[in-house]
Amino acid sequence: MTVDTIAGTPVDVNEEGFLTDPSQWNEEVAVELARREGIDPLTDRHWEVVRFMRAEYEAKGTGPTVRVLGKTSGVPVKELYQLFPKGPAKLAAKIAGIPKPRGCI
Predict the structure, then answer these.
(1) Average pLDDT over residues 64-81
(2) Which tens digit of pLDDT belongs to each residue from 10-61?
(3) Which domain holds residue 85?
């Protein structure tokens, strides 16, 4: 585990850059994480997915897979790939400050 300063906030991250403590997340951290992944700016549609990911994590202890995300978030899978081209579930989870969902490589 490493400490990284993201948007002026020291956060604990793993070797892939995912926050290891979701409570260290805030919207400024999300904006910087997205920028680092080549997503700038975060649109309302991005925020819809990011907030959905956080809510699912808080409710279930894990983020949804891309298939579940496409079926339950209100954002179709095709659009998810447009919003998060490097892998929607993995990238949205990273920006949302939650662990990588099961099944993501």
Answers:
(1) 95
(2) 999 999 999 999 999 999 999 999 999 999 999 999 999 999 999 999 999 9
(3) 2-96
Can you give the pLDDT at residue 104? 65
DSSP β-ladder status, 2-6 and 9-13? antiparallel
Catalytic residue among 7, 68, 77, 104: 104
Is residue 13 within 8 Å of 1, Cβ to Cβ?
yes
Within a domain: residue 32?
yes
103 part of a folded domain? no
Q: What is the pTM of this model?
A: 0.95
For residue 9, is it within any domain? yes
Q: How far apart are CA 24 and CA 30, in angstroms?
A: 11
Query: How many domains is the chain built from?
Result: 1
- Annotated catalytic residue 104: yes
Residue 102 in any domain: the answer is no
